[in-house]
Each structure stands twice: as C-alpha cells, then as structure tokens.
Amino acid sequence: MKRLAVLNVVGLCERELLEMPFLRKWAEGRERRSFKPAFPAVTCTAQSSYLTGLAVGEHGIVGNGWYDREAAEVKFWKQSNHLVKGEKLWERLRRERPGFRCAKWFWWYNMYSSAEFSMTPRPMYPADGRKFFDVYAHPLSLRDEVKKELGDFPFPSFWGPRAGIDSSKWIANSAKWIEKRESPDLNLVYLPHLDYSLQKFGPGAPETVQEIKAIDDVLADLIPYLEGRGIEVVVLSEYGISKVDRVVHLNRIFREKEWITIKDELGLEQLDCGASKVFAVADHQVAHIYLNDLSLKEEVRTLLQSTDGVEEIREGWEGVGGERGGDLVAVSEADSWFSYYYWLDDAVAPDFARTIDIHRKPGYDPAELFIDPALKFPQLKVAAFLAKKKLGIRGLLDVIPLDADLVKGSHGRDSVGPDEQPVVVGTGASQCGSEREVFHYLLKRCKAD
Questions:
Q1: Entry's Gene3D superfamilies (predicted)?
Q2: Which numeric CATH code is attached to 4-242+415-447?
C-alpha cells in the first residue's frame, strides 16, 4: 500500500530554498508551488487547515491562542486535538482504507489525537512548582522506549534562547525510529529549526546562513532514509518570515485610553482581561481585539486605523472572528508586528515577562528567543538557577529581555510576496493553490497507486 511522509519545514519559502543545496537539488526532480498562506499565517491555524481541509471558521483554530470568553482567560499553545473541529486527514483515510495508520510527530494539537502514534513536547509540572522537560506520547510506552534509544528530547533547543538544530535533529531521528518500528502509512514530521533564526535575526541576516545549512543537512539524512524504505516524501511549510523593524504595543495604546484594567499583584502588574473594556491578544503580525464593551467598537476601529504599523482591520468570519476570535482583528504592516506588552514601566512588569512562559503570557513573545543583553554574566545566573533547582529550591529564571525591538523577523499576514509564501514540494504539488488545497493534495497522494 502507498505510504507517505510529510515533512513540515517551518519557515521554508523560495528564498530559503535557494540556499539549501540538498533540498534544492531534490526539488528539481519534483513539482513545487508557493501559495497564499492561511490567515492568520501562524502554526496552529495553518496546520489545522492542512489536516482538515476546512476554513478557519469551521475548524475553529483562530491562532496559536485566543481569549476564552467563558473562562475569561487567554489560552495559548494548548495541546488537545479535540480543539480542532472537523474530520482529520488520517481519519478520512482510515475510513476509506481500513487498517490505515498515522504517526503524528510533533505537529501541534498532538495530545489525545486519534492518530495511532503521536509524540509532542510536554513538560511535567509537580505540585511544588518545579518543571521537568519531557514529551507526551501515544501509546504512552513510546515515550520511554524512544528515550532509551535516542536519549532525552533536547527541550531547551525547541524554544528559548538556546533554540537550535538539536531539537529538529532529535525529531528527525525519532521519525526514523517510529518508521523502523511501526512503518506507518502516513508520517507527519514537524521540523521547526528555520523559524528560530529567521525570527531572531531576520531573513537575509548573516547569522541565518549556517542555520539554513543545518536544517538542509537534517533533510539530506532524513529524506533518503524515508525514500529508501519506499516512502513518498512531501516537503511543505506553514509560512515565510518577513523582515521587521517596528513593534506595535496595542495594549499600551488601549491602556492610555483607560480601556485596560490592571491588577496589582505583589507590587507587579497583571492584565485583567475579564474586567477590561478592550484588550489585544497579540500573535505575531495579527492581533485579536476583544471588546467586553461593544459600544466602543467604532472608536476602537478608528483608533487602530490611525495607529502606525497597523495596515488593516478585519472582522466577522473573514477576519477570523466567531466564537473564539476577536471582535476585530488587526493586521500589521509588512515591517511591523504586535507585542502583548501592557505595562508602562518595566519595574512593574509581571514576573513571567522576563521568563520563558508560553502559557501565562497573554500573547506570543518572540523575545523569549533572546538572553537579556543587559545581564553581565547570564551564564552564571543560569548556572546558579540550575544549582538551586537541583537542591529543590524554587526560583525564576528571569533572563528574557523586555526589549521587543530585538526581534527582526515575524509572520502572520496572508498578503505577502511570492518569496515569503509557504511552499510545497512533491509529486503533483503544483495543484496546491491554497492552504486548504494541501489537504486534498495529501489525501490524493496517500491514495495514489
């Protein structure tokens, strides 16, 4: 029976492909096409569109996070696959091909999925406040078995200042491991490496050259291995990265209008979304604007339209609204992006602002890719923290800067040039003219003779 591997190389577009000797040569013998990205052009939305073939208003994933109106909480980077509505690619194939088996390897929404095999980053959080890096797997036995052969997943290289090639190497090796062990009919493999340097330094920066080469080397090992086992390989991406030099702090603007409610907690400021009249949930170059006071809608729209760095305001399903999305959705200009910052004085910023804390922050924070340049001896600070952690002493690893201007690359817009659009490479890939058509393309390839 036909078997397929889909390698999701995050951040890949024609611009980067030209700098990847192996992948460029491999692509020459196949079809490839760039296409307009999903909106918002972010990981969770794009992947959900690829794997369901549905519009955002149907699968419900309006971004990497959103405001839960009932819980009055912003929720980012949740992992339950039940959040994604609609029939999934592997479910459709299983219905049409009894016995079909899928491995969903580090793609998002990977907990409690109906895929036969899955693995995703998932720390353990004991009740005493400690945090232990780990992965979640289904069946659960895969977790210990893969670590026995490959060692622990290098979690610090998956996100944060140490984000780098080691995590993508480990994922690629574990994809080979599950292939050797189970030979799934569909192997979905997530390789995030390019995303890091492109956001940190921006496209075209000298620092990105070796990082592009690094992921090309991973593909040069993984693709021949898979093809050598008779598997057809498709390479695709979710979005390209745009060069940015301006950050827009929407919540600070709303605060100046006295629409934001702030709580004082132990001398530090916390955003109280449930009590605020208007607030933004920032997600790269897109921000969901939630209005607890709908009478302010036109005033908010007028304010956003006059804000430097904001290009467009959308609403309704077209703007990714509905149950989860904002009442308005702001889209940045090409050279700009949105921060979640709401404090006006760094001295009262919340304690999590200077840490890697993707779940507590009410928005995405790419500054987590940096070590605060104001720290004189950051490595000593990290070493001291780790030593205390081994002794069971709790503390904050507060090494993340509050300078959003450090970020040089972003994404999220769907109006981007051909050299920044996502790309798909594979047999018959020219038929993919949109993110939703990727679903039908993959479905067709899995059923091809």
A1: Alkaline Phosphatase, subunit A
A2: 3.40.720.10
